[in-house]
Amino acid sequence: MIYYSNSILSKLVNIILKDELPEGVPPYIQINQNEFCCLKQKKLKEEDISICECKFDVNDAETACGERCLNVLTNTECTPEYCPCGSHCRNQKFQKCEYFKTKLFKTDGRGWGLLADENIKAGQYIIEYCGEVISSEEAERRSHTYETEGVKGSYIISLDSSYFVDATRKGSLARFINHSCQPNCETRKWTVLGETRVGIFAKQDICVGTELVYDYNFEWYGGATIRCLCGAENCSIFLGAKSQGFTDYYHLWEDGDERYYPHFMVLMFDR
Ligand SMILES: C[S@@+](CC[C@H](N)C(=O)[O-])C[C@H]1O[C@@H](n2cnc3c(N)ncnc32)[C@H](O)[C@@H]1O
């Protein structure tokens, strides 16, 4: 048996998946959160494992950790080997990377975006927002560094009050999901083997070929003042204008970048 370190695994995953990305997508390392060595690594104690009361009935797949499962109801994934439904358990979607098929496409003015490549029903788990788990101090430090380095998009979202997920250098396809003030998706926090993780879920039925979008206001640590181009009637003018990251820290982007309009700052403070 050969054991690989997490960094080598990430590189291997990238090599395997690299060809699936369209030409022109800026480089990043594709990871899934299970392989990723995160900051909050801790061993799950047996007494902390929540075990549901589902009893699998071969005639009814719903019985194996469906909507009524006590763990599902509390946004907690079942722990393999402890779930009474064993291999029939359907509540390990983050752990098994059960993502919907999605496709990258080039948007008009918003960089790359992500499309649904199959029909998705309201409430379904689409993909995990993967990335490096970092502290709030590190999030602030990196945010400044990325600006200095000229990184245009912002890929940091909040995980809980102390931690953030940074998908700038390492992440899943979820890092390409754009913001909309009228979203068809939302982020939800789940507990997976004792860790908090962020999933993108459908807010409504989504047809194949539709762009996936969620509202950045709740989780985004954007920093920069970016004019929102979502086109919704109720558009809040700036990306993440109501997010904590926005109020904590913001700045104006360089003149000449068509996505950033400094004069809108005035509009915002006039409100
Ligand atoms: C998480 S990334 C989304 C993927 C990004 N479009 C790309 O090409 O990598 C967030 C960045 O996308 C752009 N973006 C996302 N939604 C937008 C919107 N509604 N209006 C303008 N820019 C948007 C902004 O540059 C933002 O910093």
Written description of the protein model:
The protein has 271 residues and is of the alpha+beta class. The N and C termini lie far apart (62 Å). A hairpin with a 2-residue loop joins strand 10 (185-192) and strand 11 (195-202). The radius of gyration is 20 Å and the shape is globular. The protein has two domains: 6-39 and 94-222, SET domain (Beta-clip-like, Beta Complex); 53-90, no CATH class. It has helices spanning 6-17, 70-73, 136-149, 244-248, 264-270; strands spanning 29-30, 102-106, 112-116, 125-128, 132-135, 156-158, 163-166, 170-171, 178-179, 185-192, 195-202, 213-214. The longest helix has 14 residues, at 136-149. It contains five helices and twelve strands. It has a three-stranded antiparallel beta sheet, with no helix packed on it. Strands 5-7-6 form a three-stranded antiparallel beta sheet, with helices on one face. A two-stranded parallel sheet has the order 1-8. The chain binds S-adenosylmethionine (SAM). The site of S-adenosylmethionine (SAM) has 19 residues, from strand 3 and strand 9.
Jot down its keywords:
single chain; disordered C terminus; methyltransferase; 2 domains; three-stranded antiparallel sheet; 12 strands; 5 helices; 271 residues; alpha+beta; Beta-clip-like; binds S-adenosylmethionine; disordered N terminus
